[in-house]
Structures are given as C-alpha cells and as structure tokens.
Write a structure and sequence with these properties.
The complex is a heterodimer of chains A (about 950) and B (about 70). Chain A is an alpha/beta fold and about 950 residues long. In chain A, about 25% of the residues lie in helices and about 25% in strands. In chain A, the strands form 17 sheets. Chain A has a 5-stranded parallel sheet with strand order 10-17-11-12-13. The chains are: A alpha/beta (about 950), B alpha/beta (about 70).
C-alpha cells in the first residue's frame, strides 16, 4: 500500500483496528508498465523534488528510476487536466476518476517508521543558502554526485556549470544549535560529509581541494575512524576545527568567502568555489502528525524518544517505533532497529504465527525429458518502449526460423495479467516445453514468468528471457536497424540456451527449530528471551560462572534508567524460563552443519570432554571488555581509575556506596577530578572509537557534580562524540561548569604523582599555553576491546570473519548489520563493536528477529542453481576446493572397480552457485546448473552466428 | 557511430547478475546510449566464466570479450 497513510489505530495489542487512507495515484498500478510515455507528453515542467530542485520533472512522474513499484503518479497540484497522458497511455492505466479510499485492517501490532525531514538552511541568513546558487545542501550535493542526478554525475557548480577547484563543507548546520531549536547532534553528518568530500575528489578530473569545517568529528560507528583517517591521509581532505559565522558571496566570481573562528578562537577566512551545508535532521511534520493521531508523545524536538531499556517501544503497547522517527541515526542503526521492532511485534504475535497463510496450488509438473523441443517465443512491444526502436514483427518472424521454435507471438505487454493467462493457455494448447519471453530484464521479470510457466505445468527453469528493452531498445534508440539486429541476436542466444535447459528442483532440508546464543550479557540474554518468547527453545552458553557480562559494572544509563534492577530481572527471567538451557563456564569449540542444522560441540569447565547440541541458528553475543590501560599511572597509583571503576562506586542518589570502598578520598570531599578520554582508542593499533566513553564520562561527571556541586571536573578530550540526544547531556555538563579541554593525539596529557594527589599536565589550545591541573583523582575512559583469542576461536568454528580489531564482521555493513556472512549465524552486542546498553538491546532483538525468520520455517528450499559434480570427468585434482568462497567443496575418495577414485563433493546447503569451481576446473568436472559451460558456450556461439 | 560503417566489431560481455548486469539495466532505465556492438551473456557471478570460454569466443569470431563483475 504505497501512497497511503495511517489514520488511526484503535483496540489493544494483538487486536488492533487500523484505518488506512489510500490516496489516489490516478494511475492503475496493475496496468502501468512504467514505460514513461506519459511523462514525455506531459506539458508541465516543475522542480524535481527528488533531485532537490536541481532538475525538473513533469506533473505525471515516478519519483526516481529505481522506485518500487515502478508506477507513475499524477501530482494533482501541478496537473492541468489536459488529458494528454490518458491519450498516449497504451496500457490504459490513467484513471482520472481515482478517489481517496479508506480501509480498515485487523492487525496485531503496528510498527512506525515514518522517517524524518532535513533542516532547511534558508533560515540561516548568514550562510547565503537560497540566495547564492553555489551554496548547496549536502543532499543537493549528493544528487550532483549521482549518475542519475541533475548533472549526470559530473561535478559541476550550479552557477555556471564550471568545474569547482575548492569546496568547503560546513558541519552542524541546524544541529547542535539551540537557536535553531535543535540542541541534539544529527549523528550522521560528519560521516556523509567525509564521504561526499572523498567522492567529490574521486569524481574531479582536476585536483580538487575539499575542506571540512567542523567542531568535533563524530566518527563513532564501526570502522568509521579508519575512514576518517583515510580521508585525511590518503585522500587529502582538510579538516578545519572551527566555528563558521558567515558565508559571503564574492561579487561576480561565483566564489564564496567562508569566515570563521579557528581552534584558538581567532577570526580567519578562506575562499571557495562551492559551499556544501551539512544540514541536520528534523522531525517530519507528517511524522509528528501521525504520532499525534495515534496519541503517542514526542520529545521537545518532535521525535519519539523511547527509554534506553525498551528502545523501540512507544507509549502505547503493541505499537513500536524505529528508524529516524526516534531520533537521528544512520542506515545500519535504522536497519537494526527495524529488525528489533519486528522482533517485538513477532513476540506479541507468536501465537498467531502461520495462521493466515494461503497456500498456492500448482498443477502437477510435466516431465519433458523425452519430448522433442517445442520452444515458445513471446516477443514484447512493451507499449512503444521496445516497438518504437526494435521491429518487433521482424524479430518474431525471425524467431520462427530458429531450430526448435514451435510457437511465436507478439504482445503489447507480455507482463500484463491477461497476457500471462494467454501464455499459460498457449503452453498447454501447443504443448510447449520451453518458453522464452523477449522483453525486459530477468532481474525484474523472471520470477513473474517462472511463476506463469509453473502454473502451466512446466518446471520454472524451462524458462529463459531475452533482454531486448533495458539492454537493447532503450540504449540504441537512434539506431533502429542495429537494435533490431541485436534483438534478433539476443533471441537467437536465448533459443540456444533454452534448447539446453533442464528441469531443476532445489533440495529441501528440515530445520532444527532451536537456537544457540553464545554469551550471557545483556545482548545474549535479550536475544535468548526474544527467541524463546517467539516459541524457539534456546541454549545459552556463557564462558563465565555468572550471567550479566559488563552490565554488572554499570549503574544507570544516561537517561537515568536503572541498569542493575533491569539486569536482575533479565537474569531471573532467563534462568527461570523452562525452554532456555543456561550453560555457564562453557565455550563453543566446534561447529559443523549449516543454516537450519548446526551441530555444536562445546566444553564446560572443568570437564575435558566435548559435549554436543543441535540448533538451527546461532546468535553470537560474546561481548567485549574495558581495556586495562598501560598509561597515565593506571595500576600504579590508586587514584587513577577507569570510568567503569568509577561507575561501580557511584552511589545511588541518597544511597550507600555499592562497591568496595574507594581507595581515593570520599567522593563528596574530593575537590577535583580529571577525566581523560580516548585512552587506548583512536590510536595506532586500535584505530577505532569506543563510542560509549564520551557519553559515559559526561554522565558520570554530572553524577559527581550532583554529589558535590563544588567539585571541579575537567574532561580532556580529542573530539566529544555525544551523538544524537546525548548531545543534550554535553550541553548540560557545560552549563554546570564542567570544563572541557581538548588535547591532540600528538600531545597527550601527562599524569604525575604529587604527594597523595596527582598533577595533570596538558596544553590549552584556546590559550595556546601549557596547563597544569592539580587533582584528587584521574578517571580514564579506557577503550573497549574485543577478546582476541576467544573471538578468533569462535570465528574459526563458525567460519565468520573478524575485522582487524577482532570484532565480528557482518555480512553487509549497511544493509545486513546483524547477519554474519555464514547463513544462520547472527551477531549482536559488543561482539559486533562497542555500543551502549540500548544499542545492544536493539541489536540483540534484531539478531533474534533475523534468526526467527529462519527458525520459523519447517523446511528450507535450497536454490537449484548450484554446482554439480560430473564424477566421470572429475579426477579429484582438488583445484576447485580452495577457491570456493563458501567452503562448500570437499575432496572424497571411494572404491571404484577395485581402485581408489578421487572426486569432489558439493555441500548443497553451502553452495551459492557462484561457479568459481566451474571456472577453475580444467576437466569440466564441475558445473553450475542452469549456467553450465555448454549452455553458456551455446549462447556465445549463437551470439557469434549470423542471421 | 553511423549505422552503416564498414567494420563493426562484435563484443561478448559476460556480466554478473548482481552488479554489472544490473548496471547495464540501469543504463537502459537512464537511456544512456551506447553502440549496439555488444551483447551481454548473463552469469550469476563473473567467477563462473571459464578462461576457455573467453578463448572460445575469441577464436570463433568475437572481436572482444568483456568480463564484468
């Protein structure tokens, strides 16, 4: 239901009535083929919002080329009702009579993901945005860099379409700025600005100078600091720590003068050809309206702000929030949160799982092996998309002459409902046993046609496509003769391949509907509970004697939620759940099998034998820990402690000290504390940000201030990385007189023992002078480090790689943030990278959600397009074994006619059909089904043949 | 390039379904024009293209072979 909005939700969790408004599109999506003929004729030209106003579009439009569904719509505010589009639409898809409709849906749960808006910098008069064309926003710049953008990916400045030589990026435009009513940090702008600067430099033929003007670089995500470093050292992007106060056009030149205060507070200026404003997040008006309609409160900035321990909950049970609706965040965090919301919804809906499925019934499959070839070729006009360039009739006539072709036809739109019905009839009527559709791309349409032939009783792999639109008529529009010739060539190739197609069926394997969770910290326990509440038994393996992990050392989250109380409840629920088997003091030592069916060997202290269990999915939540620093007198002086040491000893408001008595003077009598950030993080050998330390230090500093308002607290930092709403905490800390002093990595502070106390020597960048601070205690923000040895062991057992800092690597950093590269293995918590409690909870639920998608299947259907060994050809040379990226091939020996025969075996469940084996084999001993050497070779020969 | 020039090369391109083949589709969506001398053979991964297949194409008359993935 695109182009629709949620009007209201009534009822209770598990039993909601949702009213939805289906807005008119004025195009019938079932008929529209996305050909674009309508837009070609539409007389209205208006700013293209997708290209941020830098290009123009028509009143009948599709938002962008990759839109799903690829269906046009009419912008009624711009449409003049001339009727041209209706007249030119061959598919008869234009329906002016369309009207809004309201429908009611019975749903058990609701997930809200309405997104965000961006700040419009036109409000910031001093930055000249909207008054000078060469001042653009980062989103506009993104479009400029895009191949589908207004300048087709050429880096041009808008004023004169000239090549810019110098570009300035201005950070925190409308973020970290209470005057613009945005006290929060937008979290993603530092990284996208760095990315844009790097891409701009790559795009530019001439040397391009890019300078980023910033306050703090917030590269707090996994491996982000390495990217930041690469931008500085490899790409030569300049980073200027500053506060920009004005962007001034220089008359007549198109250039802009950027005026700023440098790191020491001195005024400075520099000229640029273009200025890119890194504009921040805003709550979207539509999202706020939606929240209001659903009676869900939002924070002062208009975002839903769930509590840290229930991070996707809204104020209404059964209604969950994810993505930027609950605050600024990047793609992996949004994807993770989406899965987390799905996990919470699935837990609620678990009793109803599978109750509303309708099963598709197919006729029995025809065995075509003994039949002579009878190929049917359907050539598509695609309206005029193909027919305007390619002579469709000529292609069809030509197809008739090809060997094995028994039937040909041409269709206006082969993919339309009636054409599909017709194809089915023709397959049956003419006893066709291979089907070719010459139309668009198999990437979009092969599944549709495979379904059609299956419904006619043919195996879906007896179908082949010739891409005569996307790769022919559309790209050779000015050469109709050559395009027709090529279309014939493509059909000839398809016929050659179709002649050799075989019926294929993937094996199906059962699923062991239980999970193993490795690690009993907050992440592991959260994942275990979600899975078990979705109905899947869980084995939880923890290497220590107690559950709880790092959370045992935490007191409260930065929004004041009580971690200790939460943890006690969590441990209690895990230990007492009848379907969670907790195995402590245990380690996984070997893992065999594959997704759906893992066989795990583990050892329990003090036993020496290997115990075994079986499960369908594995969730890795093995955690990380605080580094024991080797600098700043840590371990040598009792008053030098880490943030976790401090946190354990912080009393509850009005309460007793929970931990062992401090070796330092009582907190309330301390006169001063110095906190040093980035201890062990962001340095050679550990080039990553530990993410939580800035917020943790500020949280603890505020707590100390609360205990003793007279205490002097200094935070020595490199960049303050209080992303998102944690920025408000930083603001509060400064307001309460906590002093923040920046230091350079090359000029680290020095801590010396002086009497009972300590002396911290650092350099003040504002005064430009050395600074000595006498203090009662030094608190170090020690790095979060992965357990190298045990992670390497687990990594080998599971075949899941680690990154260079020994954190587990996800399958795709943006789009599959909790999946491991090995199917059936999922990653969450600090095993993945340093993160806060709420982020660990979200990721744990996300991992559980992903695991449940696998465990909820009773059978896994394996793709039949995988490798197959031709034993007669294979001599067991094993060339293919090592190159296989999925470790799916093993060398085996067996007795044949009294001697040992070597051969290889493919593990169907691991093979992905990449065919690296096929390319490596010198003897045609292993092939990929559906893409066999002789099938490909037949296509090549057909391509080289003449008409 | 005019439609009727004397020598017209024929290029066989093996394109990976997940990247370069998708890229060729996108070129179509964007109506980026290029000569009709290239035909694409879709493969599920450029890794499956055997070196013998490239040699075969060249010896049987292809003027160029592109493996893109």
């Amino acid at each position: 239901m695109t182009n629709s909005s949620l009007l209201g939700v009534e009822g209770e969790p598990g039993r909601f009535k949702a009213s939805v408004l289906l807005k008119p599109r004025y195009i019938d999506p079932a008929k529209c083929t996305g050909c674009g003929e309508c837009a070609k004729h539409c007389p209205i030209s208006m700013p293209d919002t997708y290209n941020e106003g830098l290009a123009r579009r028509k009143a009948i439009y599709v938002q962008y080329a990759q839109a799903v569904p690829l269906v046009y719509r009419i912008d009624t505010e711009a449409c003049i009702g001339c009727g041209l589009c209706e007249r030119v639409c061959l598919a008869k898809a234009v329906t002016y009579a369309d009207a809004p409709r309201e429908i009611s849906l019975d749903v058990g749960s609701v997930i809200l993901a309405p997104g965000y808006e961006v700040f419009n910098p036109v409000e910031l008069f001093d930055y000249s945005y909207g008054r000078h064309p060469n001042v653009v926003t980062s989103l506009q710049f993104e479009r400029i860099l895009s191949a589908s953008g207004p300048y087709r990916g050429h880096l041009l400045r808008p004023s004169d379409r000239g090549h810019p030589k110098k570009i300035a990026f201005l950070q925190c435009v409308g973020s970290r700025d209470e005057r613009e009513h945005a006290g929060y940090c937008s979290s993603v702008c530092c990284m996208y600005a760095i990315k844009e600067a790097m891409i701009a430099k790559e795009h530019s033929a001439d040397p391009l100078d890019c300078a980023v003007f910033y306050m703090d670089i917030r590269a707090h995500g996994k491996d982000f600091d390495k990217y930041f470093l690469r931008a500085q050292e490899k790409a030569g992007v300049r980073f200027v720590r500053s506060k920009v106060f004005k962007v001034e056009p220089k008359n007549g030149t198109g250039e802009l003068s950027v005026k700023y205060l440098d790191a020491s507070g001195a005024p400075a200026g520099e000229d640029f050809d273009m200025v890119v404003l890194s504009h921040g997040f805003r709550a979207s008006k539509q999202a706020v309206d939606l929240a209001n309609r659903l009676r869900i409160p939002v924070n002062e900035y208009g975002f839903v702000q769930p509590g840290t321990l229930r991070p996707v909950d809204t104020a209404r049970g059964g209604i969950f929030a994810c993505g930027a609706f609950s605050g600024p965040k990047d793609i992996p965090e949004s994807v993770t949160e989406a899965s987390a919301a799905a996990a919470d919804a699935a837990r609620l809906l678990a009793p109803a799982r599978g109750t509303m499925i309708t099963k598709v019934e197919y006729p029995p499959e025809r065995d075509v092996r003994a039949e002579a070839l009878r190929i049917g070729v359907f050539v598509c006009h695609c309206g005029i998309n193909i027919a305007n360039t390619v002579d469709v009739t000529a292609v069809r006539e030509y197809a008739k002459t090809l060997p094995g072709v028994a039937f040909t036809e041409q269709n206006l739109y082969t993919c339309s409902q009636d054409a599909q019905r017709h194809i089915k009839e023709m397959i049956i009527e003419h006893s066709l046993n291979r089907v070719i559709v010459a139309s668009c791309s198999p990437r979009t349409h092969e599944p549709i046609f495979r379904e059609t032939v299956r419904q006619a009783g043919l195996n879906p792999y007896l179908f082949e496509m010739a891409n005569i639109r996307d790769q022919c008529s559309w790209v050779h529009q000015t050469q109709p003769k050559l395009a027709t010739k090529k279309a014939k060539r493509l059909v000839r190739m398809a016929v050659a391949k179709a002649s050799m197609l075989e019926s294929l069926a993937g094996a199906s394997v059962g699923v062991t509907a239980s999970a193993l969770v490795v690690g009993g910290g907050i992440a592991g326990m959260t994942a275990a509970l979600n899975l078990v509440e979705q109905g899947f038994p869980v084995f939880l393996i923890e290497k220590e004697a107690e559950l709880g992990g790092n959370a045992r050392l935490l007191s409260r989250t930065h929004d004041g939620a009580d971690v200790r109380e939460f943890l006690v409840g969590l441990i209690d629920r895990v230990k007492n759940h009848p379907k969670i088997t907790v195995i402590t003091q245990a380690t996984v030592v070997e893992v065999a099998g594959f997704r759906g069916n893992f066989k795990v060997g583990y050892m329990v202290v003090p036993r020496k034998d290997i115990l075994r269990l079986e499960c369908g999915a594995v969730v890795v939540a093995s955690g990380a820990s605080e580094l024991k620093p080797a600098e700043y007198l840590y371990g040598q002086h009792p008053r030098v402690i880490t943030q976790l040491d401090l946190e354990q000893r912080l009393p509850e408001p009005g309460g007793e000290l929970p931990g062992a008595p401090l070796d330092v003077p009582a907190l309330e009598t301390m006169k001063s504390v110095v906190m040093i950030q980035c201890v062990g993080s962001r340095q050679q050998g550990r080039m990553y940000c530990s993410r939580v330390c800035c917020t943790q230090a500020i949280k603890n500093a505020l707590r100390l201030k609360e205990l003793n308002p007279a205490m002097d607290i200094y935070v020595l930092y490199r960049d303050i990385r209080t992303y998102g709403f944690a920025e408000l905490l930083y603001r509060r800390a400064r307001a309460q007189g906590i002093t923040f002093l920046r230091y350079d990595e090359t000029q680290k502070p020095v801590v010396e023992a002086v009497g009972d106390g300590l002396l911290v020597k650092t350099f003040d960048h504002v005064l430009g002078e050395p600074l000595h601070i006498k203090t009662d205690a030094v608190v170090l923000a020690a790095a979060i480090v992965a357990p190298e040895e045990s992670n390497l062991d687990l990594s080998h057992a599971l075949h899941v790689p680690l990154n260079e800092d020994h954190f587990f690597l996800e399958a795709h950093v943006k789009l599959r943030p909790v999946d491991a590269a090995t199917d059936g293995v999922y990653i969450c918590g600090m095993a993945h990278s340093p993160k806060t409690v709420d982020e660990s909870i979200k990721q744990a639920n996300a991992a559980a959600s992903r695991a449940a998608t696998l465990l909820s299947k009773t059978q896994i259907q394996l793709d039949p397009v995988i490798s197959e060994v031709i034993d007669a050809n294979c001599d067991g040379c094993a060339y293919c074994v090592d190159p296989c990226p999925y470790k799916a091939i093993t060398l085996v020996e067996y007795m044949q006619a009294g001697s040992v025969k070597k051969t290889v075996e493919i593990d169907d469940s691991k093979c992905q059909g990449c065919g690296t084996c096929q390319a490596t084999c010198p003897k045609k001993g292993v092939v990929v089904k559906h893409f066999k050497l002789d099938q490909l070779s037949a296509m090549v020969l057909a391509a080289l043949a003449e008409e | 390039m005019t439609e009727e020039s004397a020598f017209e090369p024929l290029i066989i391109a093996f394109c990976c379904n997940w990247c370069s083949y998708a890229g060729a589709d996108l070129a179509g969506t964007a109506r980026i024009q290029y000569p009709a001398n290239v035909v694409i053979v879709r493969v599920m991964c450029s890794g499956m293209v055997h070196s013998n297949m490239i040699i075969e194409a060249l010896t049987k008359g292809a003027d160029g072979v592109l493996v893109a993935g």
